[in-house]
């Protein structure tokens, strides 16, 4: 059910998705969705929380092999292929003005931040830079500049994703 919600919310966002759409994707009735989650808002929170937990879990797995920012970055690049996951999370950030959604989304982001520091021992500045690059990759992934179904690249796209370029 939560995976169906991630898919639906990734496509329509919080405001543009109905519990009926999620039910259709999950192959269940809309009343069943409400019985399980109580409201569309709670279903959305479950979807966003799931997306953030997948990132944290992926980071923890990567850190078992090598607890560095580079290994976590590589792990995140793998997750970019799951476009629905990252797009759902972006919709969570945009819905953070909602008094019930905002605290949950901020807590998810804070958990990811603390996890990165815990796993790698990185300082605040390094972690901030890592997250900034991750957000850039998230946005580029959502726009299909990165990932398995990427669009043909314009020059500005190539400049942004050439992460080895030393030029300022």
Automatic annotation (TrEMBL):
<keyword id="KW-0238">DNA-binding</keyword>
<dbReference type="InterPro" id="IPR009057">
    <property type="entry name" value="Homeodomain-like_sf"/>
</dbReference>
<dbReference type="GO" id="GO:0000976">
    <property type="term" value="F:transcription cis-regulatory region binding"/>
</dbReference>
<protein>
    <submittedName>
        <fullName>TetR family transcriptional regulator</fullName>
    </submittedName>
</protein>
<dbReference type="GO" id="GO:0003700">
    <property type="term" value="F:DNA-binding transcription factor activity"/>
</dbReference>
<feature type="DNA-binding region" description="H-T-H motif">
    <location>
        <begin position="18"/>
        <end position="37"/>
    </location>
</feature>
<dbReference type="Pfam" id="PF00440">
    <property type="entry name" value="TetR_N"/>
</dbReference>
<feature type="domain" description="HTH tetR-type">
    <location>
        <begin position="1"/>
        <end position="55"/>
    </location>
</feature>
<dbReference type="InterPro" id="IPR001647">
    <property type="entry name" value="HTH_TetR"/>
</dbReference>
<dbReference type="InterPro" id="IPR050109">
    <property type="entry name" value="HTH-type_TetR-like_transc_reg"/>
</dbReference>
């Amino acid at each position: 059910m939560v995976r169906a919600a991630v898919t639906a919310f990734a496509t329509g966002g919080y405001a543009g998705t109905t519990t009926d759409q999620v039910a259709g994707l999950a192959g269940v009735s809309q009343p069943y969705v409400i019985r399980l989650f109580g409201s569309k808002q709670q279903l959305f929170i479950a979807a966003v929380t799931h997306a953030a937990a997948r990132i944290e879990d992926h980071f923890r797995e990567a850190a078992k092999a090598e607890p560095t920012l580079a290994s976590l970055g590589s792990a995140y690049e793998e997750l970019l292929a799951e476009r629905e996951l990252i797009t759902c999370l972006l919709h969570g950030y945009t819905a953070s003005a909602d008094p019930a959604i905002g605290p949950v989304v901020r807590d998810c982001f804070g958990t990811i931040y603390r996890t990165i520091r815990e796993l790698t021992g990185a300082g605040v500045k390094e972690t901030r830079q890592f997250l900034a690059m991750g957000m850039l990759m998230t946005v580029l992934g959502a726009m299909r500049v990165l990932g398995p179904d990427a669009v043909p690249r314009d020059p500005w796209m190539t400049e942004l994703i050439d992460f080895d370029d030393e030029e300022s």
